[in-house]
Amino acid sequence: MSKYTLEFKMKIVNEYLEGNYSYKDLASMNGLNHSIIVRWVQRAKINGMSALASKKAKRSFSGQDKVNILDYMLTNGLSFNETGAHFDVEPSLIYQWKRKFDEHGIDALQAKRGRPSKQMIKKKAIPKNKLDALKQENLELKQQLQTAKMELAVSKKLEALAIKKRRRKNNLPK
Predict the structure, then answer these.
(1) How far apart are CA 162 and CA 151, in angstroms?
(2) Cα separation, 100 vs 95, whole angstroms
(3) pLDDT digit string, tens, across residues 61-102
(4) Which of 9-23, 67-81, 115-129 has the lowest mean pLDDT?
């Protein structure tokens, strides 16, 4: 639901267009920010009073639509508000597109909604001889690891025996 009714927006726009009040006067009288009124008036001038109605469904824009809107804005030197009024798009949405385009390029404007489609990825078949070679290498590495573990255990045991022997030697009377 829209924050402001269509009747309220039309009343504000008509008061401005009749020349009775300025943007700031209308804003202070109705407790609004003047930029909202500017946006309403621009939309009404370009697209008619029907443009003030709240949108029932979200519009989706293709990447090409976004590029075209940004191109139009930059080519004609328009502001976000003016461009939004021309295409009946929220200026904040155009600003987001511009920021994404500036930061990440044209690819950032493509729709990325939903789960990415699953693509059938074929596993690369490893040649039989290569598979055998990998199995053999794996077996050799396991044997090397086992040998290293045994050597470490033997060296720890020898060190423990040497420490024990020194303690006995130091504790015995002369």
Answers:
(1) 16
(2) 9
(3) 888 889 899 999 999 999 898 898 888 888 889 999 999 888
(4) 115-129
What is the identity of the amino acid at 166?
R
User: How would you class 148 by CB atoms within 10 Å of its CB: exposed for 0-12, middle for 13-18, buried for 19 or more?
Assistant: exposed
Name the residue type at position 79. Answer: S
* pTM: predicted TM-score of the whole model, two decimal places: 0.48
For every residue of the chain, DSSP letters joined together read: --SS-HHHHHHHHHHHHTTSS-HHHHHHHHT--HHHHHHHHHHHHHH-GGGGSPPSS-----HHHHHHHHHHHHHHT--HHHHHHHHT--HHHHHHHHHHHHHH-GGGGS---SPPPP---PPPPPPHHHHHHHHHHHHHHHHHHHHHHHHHHHHHHHHHHHHHHHHHHHHS--
Residue 47 makes CB contacts below 8 A (sequence gap 6+) with 85, 88
Q: What residues contact residue 151 under an 8 Å CB cut-off, 6+ apart?
A: none
Q: CA–CA separation, 102 vs 50, rounded Å?
A: 33
Query: What is the token pair recorded at 66?
Result: 């976004």
CB 165 within 8 A of CB 157: no
